[in-house]
Amino acid sequence: MRQIFSKYSIKFLITIPIIILLLVGLSTFFWLNNHYQKRVLELFQTQNANLIASYLIPSVEERIHDSKALKLFLQEVINNNPEIFYVGLLNQNRYYAHASSNSASFNEDAIHIKQPLTQYPHIFLEILLNPNLTQAMAQTIYPLPWHGIGIGVGIVIIALIWTLFILNPLDRLSKRLSLHTDNFKNNQNRSKKNELLLIAQSVRTLTSSNRVQKHRLKRLNSHLEELIHAKTSSLKAEIEENMRAKKRLEISNEEKTILLKEVHHRVKNNLAIIVGLICMQSRRIDDKKTKSMFMDLQNRIKTMELIHTSLYTTAQFNKIMMKEYLSLLVKHLSHSFEKDELVMFSIQCEDISMEIDQAITCGQIINELVTNAYKHAFKGLDSGHIWIRIIDLGEHFELQVEDNGSGGSEPSPQSFSLGLSLVHELTRYQLKGTLKVENKEGLKYKIVFRKKQF
User: How many helices (H) and strands (E) in the chain?
Assistant: First the structure.
């Protein structure tokens, strides 16, 4: 039995019994159906005949004493009922009233009915019926039970569904498993055709292979854990070394920051000492022109001192925030001249930062232009206004110094003072920019120069 089961496929072993079962079922159905039809026909014919006799007996008894009326009634019955061949009355085996159709098909298959009258038991009503018409009526009233054929068709459909959706996928599964397990066992399953046996053998092979792979995987995981542990220890040591290096770098940066602050502080102090010495020396001079020259020199040095003051008080040593620097510079210049209460300053500078060299140069230019405005723009006036603007143009800066004084037009280059000469030289050689002067109710200086990257 095991050899037969392994020799043939499950599709073959299931399909053949289904076909046999279907044939046996259909044969049994047709035999039972034929027997059923015969039984139904006999019952119908008997019931139909009895019903006809019960219907005719009362009418026959009404006309029993009128032979002419009785014959006419029997003939009318024949004419109105084509399934009746013959109808008549029998009294002591003698027919004394009867009627028959013109059909000559009186044969042995005719249905014969003999039933006594109710009021005259010694008289019998005899009827012959056409079996063909009766059978047609029986089939109309009791149709053939086609549900049996439907059951057979249903079995076929179930067999097809079983084959298409169960057996075929089972066959494909067994082939794939067999092909897969051929990599682990050399064609041990090819001798078996039964899908279930192939699947069982493949599952056993896969289970055995999984155990081997699981053991290998366990060994590999153990090896990987050792490698990870060693790598983790190495990374931990490297991280600790990086942390120590970072700490050393932070200490070094802090030391450099302190050193830079100390340098700027010392430079600021030295410049402040120079400014103080110049101030002390200027007090001993009575000549106003010479004293003015000392004040200009003092302001120029003070301009550089304020740069180092800003660098000393900030955490960034590569750029100057111009708004705070200009505020300190303007405050110092306003205190340096006698007309500080008459001149107002307006600083328009957003959060603009400059590289140190450009900031020092801009501070010196502003110092010279503001000093020039104090000396020449407001002569004969009670008050004045000076605007200082720095505008960010993207890749360039624009520095504007404007006053509302009456200083006239800018002098020619041949008559430049030291201050205006410094403005032109610093613009041309330090800032690499262009200078433009406008005279509209006062002088307005516009200097455009390219930004320096930090």
Answer: 11, 11
What fold characterizes domain 325-454?
Heat Shock Protein 90 (3.30.565)
Confidence of residue 41 (pLDDT cuts 50, 70, 90): low
**Could you give the CA distance from residue 394 to residue 391 in angstroms, rounded to a whole number?**
9
- How far, in Å, CA of 358 to CA of 320, rounded? 9
| Topology classification of domain 2-145 | Beta-Lactamase (3.30.450)
Domain range list for the chain: 2-145, 325-454
Tell me which residue of 150, 168, 203 sits closest to 29, measured CA to CA: 150
Question: Is the pTM value of this prediction over 0.85?
Answer: no
HEC string of 272-314? HHHHHHHHHHHHCCCCHHHHHHHHHHHHHHHHHHHHHHHHHCC
Q: Tell me whether domains 2-145 and 325-454 share a fold.
A: no
Task: For residue 8, give every residue at least 6 positions away whose Cβ sits within 8 Å of its Cβ, in sequence order, or none.
Answer: 193, 194
Backbone phi and psi for residue 371, each to the nearest 5 degrees, phi listed first: -60, -40
- Average pLDDT of the chain, as a whole number: 77
**Mean pLDDT across the stretch 98-125?**
74
CA 261 to chain centre: 56
Ramachandran region, residue 27 (left: φ > 0; alpha: ψ -120 to 50; beta: rest)? alpha
Per-residue pLDDT at 118: 83
